[in-house]
């Protein structure tokens, strides 16, 4: 997943599992809309927006970083669609059908920063549930090397602010409404217990 290298025209990356593999927490029907429609639309729109602009020559991550600071007219929609393209690819990899528990360096880092997995889950759930409206709940490694929980609104992403994302949960309603309706806390709890991909998070530590 070399998101620091890919350039326009961008394509929708393949899902790392079958579309029904995350059921029942994330159903095939949710995937069909969330991946097949929402994520696909961000990629298509991004290609339209960058065509013929200086952004066309940049990697996806460069587009995010530069458009976040750019005050000219097309930068905001470019940022929104580029960040959403990036965030969703990262999100699909933040889940694994088999479920997982933190081990090795990842477990040590959670122990050190949060006092263990249970305390992390409690804090992450509170952040994810407390994010008002659409957004994302992240586990990131900060510039000082410590792990932190962060939420971002709408398309915003730690990539634009110098944080290193380790894991992300999408808390836009489109991520859970077909399966959990308004019960975001139940969705987040099931997501952490059944789907969180700790080996992916551990890879992102380095
Ligand atoms: Mn989404």
Question: What features would you describe in this structure?
Answer:
There is one protein chain. With 206 residues, the protein is mostly helical. It has 2 domains: 28-93, Fe,Mn superoxide dismutase (SOD) domain (Helix Hairpins, Orthogonal Bundle); 104-205, minor pseudopilin epsh fold (3-Layer(bab) Sandwich). Helices cover 49% and strands 10% of the residues. It has 8 helices and 3 strands. It has helices at 28-50, 60-69, 75-93, 104-114, 117-130, 177-180, 184-195, 198-204; strands at 135-141, 147-153, 164-170. The longest helix has 23 residues, at 28-50. Residues 34, 38, 88, 170, 172, 174-175 line the site of manganese (III) ion.
Name a few traits of the molecule.
binds manganese (III) ion; 8 helices; 206 residues; mainly alpha; 49% helix; Helix Hairpins; minor pseudopilin epsh fold
């Amino acid at each position: 997943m070399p998101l620091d290298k890919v350039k326009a025209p961008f394509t929708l990356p393949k899902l790392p599992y079958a579309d029904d593999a995350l059921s029942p927490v994330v159903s095939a029907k949710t995937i069909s809309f969330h991946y097949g429609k929402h994520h696909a639309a961000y990629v298509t729109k991004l290609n339209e927006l960058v065509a013929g602009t200086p952004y066309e020559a940049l990697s996806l991550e460069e587009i995010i970083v530069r458009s976040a600071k750019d005050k000219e007219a097309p930068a905001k929609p470019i940022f929104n669609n580029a960040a959403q393209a990036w965030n969703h690819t990262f999100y699909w990899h933040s889940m694994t059908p088999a479920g997982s528990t933190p081990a090795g360096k990842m477990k040590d880092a959670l122990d050190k920063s949060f006092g263990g997995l249970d305390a992390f889950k409690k804090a992450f759930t509170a952040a994810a549930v407390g994010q008002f409206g659409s957004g994302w709940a992240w586990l990131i490694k900060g510039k000082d090397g410590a792990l932190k929980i962060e939420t971002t609104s709408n398309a915003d992403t730690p990539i634009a602010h110098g944080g290193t994302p380790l894991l992300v949960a999408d808390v836009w309603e489109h991520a859970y409404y077909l399966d959990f309706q308004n019960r975001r806390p139940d969705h987040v709890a099931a997501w952490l217990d059944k789907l969180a991909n700790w080996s992916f998070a551990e890879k992102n530590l380095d």
